[in-house]
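Re: weekly structure request thread

Next one in the queue (150 aa):
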Amino acid sequence: MPTTIRETVLAAVATKLDAISGTNFKRTATPPVDYDDLPAIRQYSGNHVPVPQNTGSELRTMRVDVEIYVTAATDDELDPALNDLYGKVYSALIDPVDPTHGVPAVRHVRKALYDNPDILSEDQARSFYGTLLGFEINFETAESDPYNAG
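Done, posted below.
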């Protein structure tokens, strides 16, 4: 069975996130994150909206959510650790050298204008911190054809 452009794009994003060293990456993993897996990155694919173009193609904007979680020896170290992982995720996905992530159908990736509130652990003995980052990926397919680039 052929691979859709959507899956090709999501797999390319997963490859970039999985390459971030020192983290436990899972794509579309079911929550919750296990404390022993921290620091962790989770990728969730969202809906995409096709917009027909006058060229016989459709431009699609797909939402990809990325949750990140960290732990630290002290509460004062949690925020810097989360910000460090945020920077690594952002740099991996907003790549000026390879904005298509090796997928010619990708037009661009941008940081979405939404994030979820930060998540703090309730267990004082095992502190962790996390947040959700939103990204939007524009890619083009042939009109009414999810398998071929436009």
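The two ends are 20 Å apart (CA to CA). The first helix runs from residue 5 to 18.
Next request, please.
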